[in-house]
Design goal:
Layout: E1 20-22, E2 28-32, E3 37-45, E4 51-59, E5 65-69, E6 77-79, E7 83-84, E8 90-96, E9 105-112, E10 120-121, E11 125-130, H1 141-182, H2 186-220
Parallel strand pairs: 2-11
Antiparallel strand pairs: 1-3, 3-8, 4-5, 4-9, 6-8, 7-8, 9-10, 9-11
């Protein structure tokens, strides 16, 4: 007689728990003032509907921030009921129409379910609402190109004028130096120089001779 021993194993599975997987969120979003902003959070859950609430965290002056619920009663705020994709991912979208500067902040979805051990925040998206720069002169690109071309031409003309003036000045100085040398008569300069040299050399001897002649004349005049 063959005896077959059968062992029964009991495995306890906690069906009250839910497995929640967060999908990557867009890290940041920049929206121009008075434009529409679309924010989305996505996740997947093993079973049941997850309660989703949008929260915003605004950084205070002292550097701290605390999440607070988005006021869905505001007319420029719209929250959809969630869309389930083919891959089984649930996505919720928050729409801010005519975004304002104080709408800037970190937007997160707060996920809550009775089977969750702890409530979960999604990664979140930081929204930055910026004011566009006001153009002082609203001109077209072709006009800008024409202005830049004109500035380049003026700069080139200024450089050429400055260089021409410097060349003319240098040429004028050179001509003046040549005129100075042309006005001098080298023969007269040499003769004058020779006369000065002869007077310096012969001057003392001529003075002695003159003194002797004067003394003789004086002696001849005596009786």
């Amino acid at each position: 007689v063959e005896v077959i021993e059968v062992i029964y194993t009991c495995v306890h599975v906690d069906l009250s728990r839910i497995q929640l997987t967060l999908e990557p969120d867009r890290p940041s979003l920049r929206v121009q003032l008075s434009h529409t902003a679309h924010l989305r959070c996505c996740f997947s859950a093993t079973r049941g509907a997850v309660e989703t609430t949008w929260f915003i965290s605004i950084q205070t002056v002292n550097g701290t921030s605390a999440p607070q619920g988005v006021d869905q009663r505001d007319n420029h705020v719209t929250v959809d009921g969630g869309n389930l994709t083919a891959a089984g991912v649930m996505c919720h979208t928050l729409i801010l129409r005519e975004a304002r500067l104080n709408d800037s902040g970190l937007y997160q979805c707060f996920l809550n379910h009775s089977a969750l051990q702890h409530s979960v925040y999604t990664h979140g998206t930081f929204l930055q609402v910026y004011r566009p720069m006001v153009k002082i002169l609203d001109i077209s690109e072709s006009t800008k190109n024409s202005i830049l071309t004109a500035e380049a031409m003026l700069l080139m003309v200024a450089v050429l004028l400055h260089g021409t003036m410097m060349l003319c000045k240098k040429k004028r100085v050179k001509e003046e130096e040549e005129n100075i040398y042309e006005g001098l008569n080298l023969e007269e300069c040499c003769s004058t120089y020779d006369q000065i040299q002869r007077s310096l050399v012969q001057g003392p001897y001529q003075d002695v001779g003159n003194m002797i002649m004067e003394e003789e004349e004086i002696q001849l005049e005596k009786p």
